Amino acid sequence: MRDAAPEDAEALLAVWADFSRRTATDTGRPPAEEASCAVARIAAEPDERLLVAVLDDEVVAAAHLTRARLSPIHCESAIHVSHLHVLPKYRRRGIGRMLIEAAVTWAEEKDTTHVLAAASVHSRDANRFMARLGLAQVAVVRAATVGSLRAKLPVEPPPGAMVSSRNHRSVGQVIAARRSMRRAQSKTD
Q: Can you give the residue ranges of the N-acetyltransferase domain (predicted)?
């Protein structure tokens, strides 16, 4: 067990292959270069850690730890464990338990009283593992792209809401303008 280094970028992409595919971004950089940059950024943060489990010189698991407030209305902090993943062929060997143990040890070092851990809703094994360790379900975390959320939200801001300085038009106005343009186009044809 050790902190990840930028040289672990390729291995981390392999560990998180499924997650990486679902959240790919187009930064213009190769994925390994972007991952290496992210690992270096995390290493420089005093309230973040990226742990890797290594077996026979191969990275077989990883977890991201962040020290942050327990909630917006609490002064005490918690260690948030996310993206804990063990490669399938290395599961049931105590590697996940070692990653959680490392999170608990770091929490103790930082005088932090709580550990919060996230597991994929689709991973029955991960959720059972967390429950066996005594981690209770306290929330459901959902994710979406900004674009897909924008498409589902009301187009008119609620009364009294701050609106950006950009030209804000409702979908109804856009559709009406397009219909008018089509009618004008069809009259000229």
A: 1-156
